[in-house]
Amino acid sequence: MAQSTTKRYCIVGAGAGGLTCARHAADTGAHVTVFEQTASVGGTWVYTDATGHDRYGLPVHSSMYRDLRTNIPKQTMGYWDSELVSDRTYPGQQEVIRIAPLFGEGASQWEVIVRDLRENRYETLQFDFVMVCNGHYSCPMVPEYPGRDVFVGIQIHSHDYRCADRFKDQDVLLVGAGYSASDIAIATAKVARSLTVSHHDPSKVNFGNLPTLVTKPTISKLTPTGVEFVDGTAINCSVIIYCTGYRFTYPFLSVDCGITVEDNHVTPLYKHVININHPTMALIGVPFYCCPTQMMDLQARFCIQYFTGSRSLPSRSDMLADTEADLEERKRRGLPKKWMHKLVDDMQFKYYEDLARTAGIVPLKPTVEKMFTECMRRRMLDVQNYRDDEFEVVGED
């Protein structure tokens, strides 16, 4: 095949991250190919009643449950130059098999093997840049408590939760106290006979005034009919829903890509996004507890500056030093290894400012931070009703 000066981009996933990467890459005049293993674009935001595996034997990707609404305002859910369109402030098939770097003069940098799921046909392609946008809300993380195999009731992860109806008149235990746990608790409390939430710090469980809710500490073990907790207390329950988060997983990246994941810490990434070992690859959307679409759009624009040569990346040693400084700051704050990508406290908007300043790109609008901060404040005050608020942007700031 004749060599072309048009750069070729491989985008893995057609969710919010993949779509913005494709848009910004295409704006440079590049040839862009997006690979998506489901039947539609939208990633985890595409609702399906299905759980388990799809008709091709692949795990169902979406974690969307019925009646889910965004937990941050729509104005913080769009991209930097386009707002999410909704009448409410809080709105409710090719698979990549393997990516490996190519070596040798004149070769494209990446070899990508894909499978056409409908035709069950494989194809090998070559690209100059790879932007991995497969998301991290599709591979559930379930704690391995003793006795999980002896419990006779229902055990599911929130990934497979769709609606509360199936838990009518059941004794339900939720494990975890994050966003999905609060949504599921509020819905389940209306139909369950009893509702218990287990969390390592029960004082931080804030699901509002749910009269049937009881809080407990960490589970020590499961029994055939219930669980025992580390404080020595026990309950009987018929359903356990693990709201315990997700694992970063990149099964299609070959070892030669130089990316490792250990205790949910993805390394080595410059600014949490560019593969330091092969800087023509980016992993979009790794940081969490954030304004995801705004962040992914910013990350895409950040990477394009370097992929097009508009900006030059620092040396490998400087990128590693920058990454190490970030890790040391997180350790100083007492964050465990699994939270090395968590944007806690003031980290989120400092990260966005750093990306924009480093790459010389348009930063996020000031209203994004203000609205996010106010949203989180109001959520703490009234987790059950804060999504009934309506925000209006009245000026640039």
TrEMBL record:
Enumerate the cofactors the protein uses: FAD
SUPFAM superfamilies per the UniProt record, alphabetical = FAD/NAD(P)-binding domain
**Record EC number:** 1.-.-.-
Do you know which Gene3D superfamilies this protein is assigned to? FAD/NAD(P)-binding domain
Q: Which keywords appear in this protein's UniProt record, sorted alphabetically?
A: FAD, Flavoprotein, Monooxygenase, NADP, Oxidoreductase
- Matches recorded under Pfam families: FMO-like (PF00743), NAD_binding_8 (PF13450)
- A GO molecular function held by the record: oxidoreductase activity, acting on paired donors, with incorporation or reduction of molecular oxygen, NAD(P)H as one donor, and incorporation of one atom of oxygen
Q: Which family does it belong to?
A: Belongs to the FMO family.
Per its record, how is this protein called by name? Flavin-containing monooxygenase
Q: Which organism is it from?
A: Culex pipiens pipiens
User: Which taxonomic lineage is given here?
Assistant: Eukaryota, Metazoa, Ecdysozoa, Arthropoda, Hexapoda
